[in-house]
């Protein structure tokens, strides 16, 4: 059993996002949601990174901290939805590639302690590998909603 | 349908690795294999990166280029095996975290055109985000075999 990295009495911002609670305890907003089913929800990330704006995360609807404890049923669905998002981004964003990334524990760059699987649009010479996690920038809800609308339209085609 | 990024008449080094063919067309060697079943194979990567030596990749046994065309059956198994490797690395390497990454198309840093899912051991302040893909270094077969032995022992416990 691997020790939790979350502080005591952790108020999970991703659980709030999944429950569509609008609160000061989460940056996530219902308009960020691009996909939802019984097991998982996908959002436009609250932070944009480098030239890779509008990236998505896929999360389990129930609280699991990281890859160590995620049940297979959720992991499988997360793969399926990440794949659909990758294909949708290719069409909706016109990106040149896709990189997925999933971080576990603070030493692995995990900052929100609820499993989340990142799907990044990639562009030729986008400098993705030179951007530090500390350089991420909070995106305004309106900016996120623009990307969410594009992806949702593609996902429901 | 997304266009293949592989050159014409591509000799796939990962297919050769899965088939355990020792050839100048692949850096992969049978001793790098840490897990194999009907659908997927996991290897110690031929290249080591920064302070994250001995990272693993999980690949489908059949040739699929990337996330766009990987059938769900393979994707699900890859999740399962990546999770087992993450847990095994925590024990066998004593690492402080895990990061997974999967690249698609050259713009997304894909260099071998057969789907491969990276599982990296992470350590506190390991500088992982400052290491460029060009800085990867070919590991000697003997170095890889050491990590493979550790992980295999843990995976079969």
Can you walk me through this structure?
Chain A is of the alpha+beta class. The first copy, chain A, has a single domain (30-155), classed as HIT family, subunit A (2-Layer Sandwich). Chain A is 27% helix and 20% strand. The first copy, chain A, is built from three helices and seven strands, in the order H-E-E-E-E-H-E-E-E-H. Chain A has helices at 13-18, 72-92, 141-155, and strands spanning 33-36, 40-44, 47-48, 56-60, 97-104, 117-122, 137-138. In chain A, the strands form two sheets. A five-stranded antiparallel beta sheet of chain A has the order 1-2-4-6-5. A two-stranded antiparallel ribbon of chain A has the order 3-7. In chain A, strand 1 and strand 2 (40-44) form a beta hairpin. In chain A, helix 2 packs across helix 3 (141-155). The model of chain A has no long low-confidence stretch (mean pLDDT 96). Chain A binds chain B through residues 2, 66-68, 70, 72, 75-76, 78-80, 82-83, 86-87, 90, 95-110, 122-126, 128-130, 132-133, and chain B through 2, 66-68, 70, 72, 75-76, 78-80, 82-83, 86-87, 90, 95-110, 122-126, 128-130, 132-133. Strand 5 of chain A pairs antiparallel with strand 5 of chain B.
Side-by-side strand order of the widest sheet of chain A:
1-2-4-6-5
Give me the oligomer status: homodimer
**What is the mean pLDDT of chain A?**
96
Order of helices and strands of chain A: HEEEEHEEEH
The CATH superfamily label of chain A reads: HIT-like
Q: What form of chain A results from the Cα inertia axes?
A: globular
The most extensive contact between chains is: A-B, 42 and 42 residues
- Structural class by sheet pairing and helices of chain A: alpha+beta
């Amino acid at each position: 059993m691997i020790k939790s990295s979350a502080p005591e009495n952790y108020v999970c911002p991703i659980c709030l996002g999944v429950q569509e609670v609008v609160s000061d305890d989460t940056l996530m907003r219902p308009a960020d949601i691009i996909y939802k089913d019984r097991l998982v929800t996908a959002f436009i990330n609250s932070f944009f990174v480098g030239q890779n704006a509008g990236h998505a995360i896929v999360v389990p609807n129930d609280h699991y901290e990281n890859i160590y404890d995620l049940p297979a049923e959720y992991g499988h669905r997360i793969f399926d939805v990440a794949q659909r998002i990758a294909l949708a981004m290719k069409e909706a964003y016109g990106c040149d590639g896709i990189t997925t990334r999933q971080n576990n524990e603070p030493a692995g760059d995990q900052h929100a302690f609820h499993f989340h699987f990142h799907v990044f649009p990639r562009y030729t010479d986008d400098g993705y590998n030179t951007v530090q996690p500390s350089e991420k920038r909070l995106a305004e809800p309106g900016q996120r909603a623009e990307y969410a609308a594009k992806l949702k339209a593609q996902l429901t085609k």
